[in-house]
Each structure stands twice: as C-alpha cells, then as structure tokens.
C-alpha cells in the first residue's frame, strides 16, 4: 500500500519501483514485476538493476529472447558487470544455449577477483556449459577448479563424478 502511495505521489520514483518489483517477485507475480521494472526511468542510476531484474522476470515467463536482448547491451565485450554477466549466463544455460553460456561465463571468470572461495559457482556453471557443448577437457578443468575452491561442494562432486563415468 505504501509503495503504491509513494508511486501515486512520484510515479517514476526509481527506488519505489524497484521495491515494488521485488515485492511482486517475492509473491511469484513476474508479469506484474515486469510492468514495474519497465517503468524505471532510463536516466536513473538504478536502471541497470531494473534491467537485470526485468530480464530475469521475462525469462521466468518464457520470454527469454527478450531477456537476452535486454542483457546483451549490459554485457559488452569489455564489461566487468558480474551481475549482468551472471544473469545472461544463467538464462542461456537454462535455455540450453551451452556454447553461448560458456562464452558468457568465461567473461565473468575473467572479471572475478582471484582466490575467493565463492567463485566456485562460476567455474561449476561454466564447466556444465563446456561439458554440454562437447568441450570435455575445458569442462573437467573448470569442475576441478570449482572443487579446488570448495572441496566438499556436493553439486560439483556429483556432476564431476557422473561426467567421469560418462567419459
């Protein structure tokens, strides 16, 4: 109610729009979240965040091509925007565009701060994309790197183990 009142008073208030979009996401209403995120002004410093959330919600309602089209300008070849890169890679992986997501995650890996244990997920997802796009040697190296960063990570152990059996 308060967010709607705030938007009644200031219709394009970026923070109120992001908060309302987040609220709609939390109650599983991606169609409403999409409409809200589209209203964030292009001039707002919060526009980038809104575009990423908009893309995630478009993907949730099977409008993945539109989502990718929104994220591509945020993920330029020299971009180090890890949030946008991750969102694009996740959508491509979810839509089985494995060669594309391997490239996208590679851009993210190149921008990562080194040595952080939480980076394992980047190598895990990129390893999946490499494996699914028939690039086993790269996939194995990434999965092992993920294990190096998180030695007891069950998802990585499971994926790597089954992949070795398949190979």
Key words describing this protein structure:
167 residues; mainly alpha; 71% helix
Give start-end ranges of low-pLDDT stretches: none
Q: How are helices and strands ordered from N to C? A: HHHHHHHHHH
Count the DSSP helices.
10
* Rough outline: elongated
Beta-strand portion reads under 5%
Oligomer: single chain
The first-to-last residue Cα distance is 56 Å
Largest sheet entry: none
Kindly state the percentage of residues in helix: over 70%
- Average pLDDT, rounded to a whole number, is 95
The total strand number stands at: 0
Radius of gyration: 18 Å
| Derived structural class | mainly alpha
Describe the structure.
It is a single chain. The chain is 71% helix and 0% strand. It is mainly alpha-helical. The radius of gyration is 18 Å and the shape is elongated.
Walk me through the topology.
Blueprint: H1 2-9, H2 14-26, H3 30-37, H4 47-60, H5 64-71, H6 82-94, H7 98-111, H8 120-132, H9 136-149, H10 154-166
Helix pairs in contact: 1-2, 2-3, 2-4, 3-4, 4-5, 4-6, 5-6, 6-7, 7-8, 8-9, 9-10
Provide a concise account of the structure shown.
By secondary structure, the chain is mainly alpha-helical.
